[in-house]
Amino acid sequence: MKAPRFTRKTLCIPYAVFLIFFVIIPMCVILFYAFTDKEMHFSFSNFLRFFSDPTKLSTIVYSIVISLITTVICLLIAYPVALILARSKLKKKFVILMLFVLPMWINFVLRINAIREFFNLLSQAEALSWLENANIFKTVVGMVYDFLPFMILPLYTTMLKIDDSLYEASADLGANAVTTFFRITLPLSVPGIMSGVTMVFLPSMTNYVVSDMLGNAKVTIIGKFIYEYFGSDWHMGSMVALVLLIIVFVSTILSGGFKSEENVRGTNL
Amino acid sequence: MAEHIIELKGVTKYFGEDLIIDNMSFFVNKGEFITFLGPSGCGKTTTLRMIAGFDLPSSGQILLHGEDISSLPPNKRPINTVFQRYALFPHLNVYENIAFGLKCKRVINTYRNAKGEEYTKRERLTKKEIAAKVKKALEIVDLEGFEKRSISTLSGGQQQRVAIARAIVNEPEILLLDEPLGALDLKMRKEMQIELKKMHDRLGITFIYVTHDQEEALTMSDTIVVMSDGVVQQIGTPTKIYNEPANTFVADFIGESNIFTGTVVGKHRVRFCGKTFECVDDFEQNELVDVVVRPEDVKMCAPSEGTLKGEVISVVFKGIHYEITVQVGKYEVVIQSTESRQVGETIGLSVAPDGIHLMKPKYTTNVFDGVITKHNTVRFGDGEWECDVTQLYPESHLDEEEYLITKEGEKIDLTDTEVRVEVGLNDITISDEADVGGVMGHIISIIYKGDHYRLIVRTEENEEDYVFATEDLWNEEDYVSVIIPKDKILLSLKPKAKEDEA
After folding, report:
1. Cα B488 → chain centroid
2. Interface residue A260 vs chain B (CB under 8 A)
3. With contacts defined as CB-CB under 8 Å, which chain B residues touch A260?
């Protein structure tokens, strides 16, 4: 009898099973629901309903705007931090980096609850009472708080890779600090910016826990939408999910995420 | 007299606690090709970086045309660098890399307005001017037509050329080259050496070149600065450095040498390897000297005709010559000759007077500052040693409580007495075993002297050096214990301590 051969391919089986049951089949189910009506007949009705409903379209635009604001603020905060840390010769810079990344390891719901209580406390003060109804402001603050480490890390790792001699060469050739930044540092850190942006922009479109808890449930983003539809209308919910998927796909292509093989997405310490 | 374009005055550089450059002073003439040569870690790259402006001297001055530029940032200096690993900008193509410096440049142009008055404007170079300069630079380095190529598609040699073009396109007054050929293969390196030399002749720019390759330095330079341990050992033309090395370090580092210890026995007469030779250098009679003889200066002859006679113990073919090692008594003599000899053959050797170079030995003995501890041991050179303290006072002895009793019967507590400690070159031995001696250190230098090696062991704590002779072969960087027998530690009171006693 032939002994069962244990090859490297065998090791792929668990993941293949996972892939089939948790990625491929659910995708098919979403596709199926998105293009069927309540009687399970093939139909474009969900598609037409979605794109003829101004509230749904405005929610998408609204989500994109909130994500954009979050992303830009994250980038503005993270870039100098990453640059200073990457270029400093401090032996203890690992500790400083840890301080920025540490919140990532504390339970997400706990963190958001904490920041909500913090805002509640602040809004007790008369001068800050406007905070109580500043729902968008609070949502964005929560998102930035939540996603900042995902911006810092890829930026930091990209900047670490820039050889010191390039800065020296730039100065040697007569460039001052500003010129060196715009002509050397910035272009060479673009891959880090790209992966930081995708890691912040996309999740913040769907993270409705933050908008629910900090926006008094008055800020509705696309993720919240999907959640609500799956309570009543699976067909519409699937269609919204599909639209979101397409948005993600298109924006990833635009940011060149599928191009480079050595991208730093998902880098860790 | 040529103009001094760069001058270093007492430049000292510390990195943290480490002394990298120790009070260095020299000058560079305008238009010359000068090379900093030395083993790795000798401070040559740091010196270059201070001239470029990447590192600032801890003290001392760097003068450009007589003006102090020590604290001027690199972008304000009319100096460009070719980096060791090229440091080309990976996101820019060849053209953009070379044009980088030109785009940063501002030139002062003079115009005449309608009324005929002259006025000046600080302006960028035009696109056309930049393109013309880049084209010319690419021609100089032989890379015409490479403008659009990306850096990653270039070979090492091509990247090297782009790096040179990027520096010379700015028409600097001084071009610094930091081991630029280190990453190239031998054939490529030889070609680039010749090309760089030609480029230097054509451009008329002052070249400051850093290398650890002595052959490269001898081939290319007008002047060589030999460095070791952050100190200039010798400055001179390649011929001078090779033919008249200032000390055994230079002789050993530049080319092959036979180094012996000799004694001057008369006017222009020196004795080494058990024989007396005629020489050119003049030293005091009976002075101990280091004798350097280049292998190509040793001539082979019939056994009866030579000053020395010995047996051939190895013959190695080196392409253009044979390297023949001859055992003369207990000395080994290396010869380079186009003629071969058989191993085992007995031959005679002679050296012409101008082939014998005498130099003052750097080390004749080890001298330390020491302090007597309360246990009648002495602390010096990062270690604590057993010694005989009674030698400090004639005819003294120790009593039962270990106090020193002088000839006159006076009782002296020697604790904390400062003493001068002397240890002869032949009185130190070393061992692989840890902690069998008074202190441990790394071997930092080995020089073969015909029948023995001269070693220097340096301790870690205060970098104290122990110099001594041994017949055993050790390796550089070995971590060893230094052993000095009790009776070989010669103590004497320091003048100040003596005064206190009086």
Report:
1. 32
2. no
3. none
Q: Do B85 and A184 touch (CB under 8 A)?
A: no
With 60 as the cut, is the pLDDT of residue A258 above it?
A: no
- Which site among B81, B160, B169 would you substitute to test the A interface, given the most A Cβ atoms closer than 10 Å to its Cβ? B81
pLDDT tens per residue across span A9-36: 888 889 999 999 999 999 999 999 988 8
CA distance B196 to B191: 9
A161 close to B (CB below 8 A): no
- Predicted confidence at residue B317, as pLDDT, reads 92
Bridge-based pairing of strands B275-278 and B322-328 is unpaired
CB atoms A171 and B87 under 8 Å: no
Helices A108-124 & A135-160, crossing angle to 10 degrees?
A: 130
Q: What are B383-392's pLDDT values in tens digits?
A: 888 888 888 8
**Do B275 and B353 reside in the same domain of the chain?**
yes
Domain shared by B496 and B371, yes or no: yes
> Is residue B186 very low, low, confident or very high in pLDDT (cuts 50, 70, 90)?
confident
Contact B414, B389 (CB under 8 A): yes
Q: How far is CA A160 from CA A88, A199, A249, in A?
A: 10, 19, 29
Q: Which of B157, B153, B199 is nearest to B180 (CA)?
A: B157
Instruction: Give the integer Cα–Cα distance in Å for A226 and B455.
Output: 79
B85 touching chain A per CB within 8 A? yes
Q: Report the pLDDT value the prediction gives residue A265, as an integer from 0 to 100.
A: 40
What pLDDT score was predicted for residue A75? 95
**Does the beta carbon of B122 lie under 8 angstroms from any beta carbon of chain A?**
no
Q: How far apart are CA B387 and CA B421, in angstroms?
A: 10
Interval B47-66 mean pLDDT:
93
Tokens of residue B320, six digits: 């253009």
Mean pLDDT value across residues B12-31: 91
A40 inside domain? no
Could A172 and B85 be called an inter-chain contact, meaning their C-beta atoms sit closer than 8 Å? no
Q: Do B100 and A172 touch (CB under 8 A)?
A: no
Which of A159, A166, A172 should one mutate to test binding to chain B, selecting the residue with the greatest count of B CBs within 10 A?
A172
B83 touches A at CB < 8 Å: yes
Count other Cβ atoms within 10 Å, centred on residue B337. Answer: 16
In a domain, B27, yes or no: no
Task: For residue B145, give its domain range.
Answer: 87-171
Residues B354 and B369 in one domain: no
Question: What residues make up the domain containing A231?
Answer: 58-163+191-254
Partner-chain residue, chosen from A173, A175, A188, that has the shortest CB–CB distance to B80 = A173
User: Residues B108, B159: one domain?
Assistant: yes
Which chain B residue has the Cα nearest residue A191? Answer: B91
Give pLDDT tens digits for A88-144.
877 778 888 888 888 888 888 888 889 889 888 888 888 888 887 788 888 899 999
Count the domains in chain A: 1
Residues B122 and B136 in one domain: yes
Nearest CA in chain B to A186: B91
CATH value at residue B98: 3.40.50.300
Residue A47 Cα, gap to closest chain B Cα (Å): 44
Q: The domain spanning residue A217 has which CATH number?
A: 1.10.3720.10
How many independent structural domains does chain B possess? 3
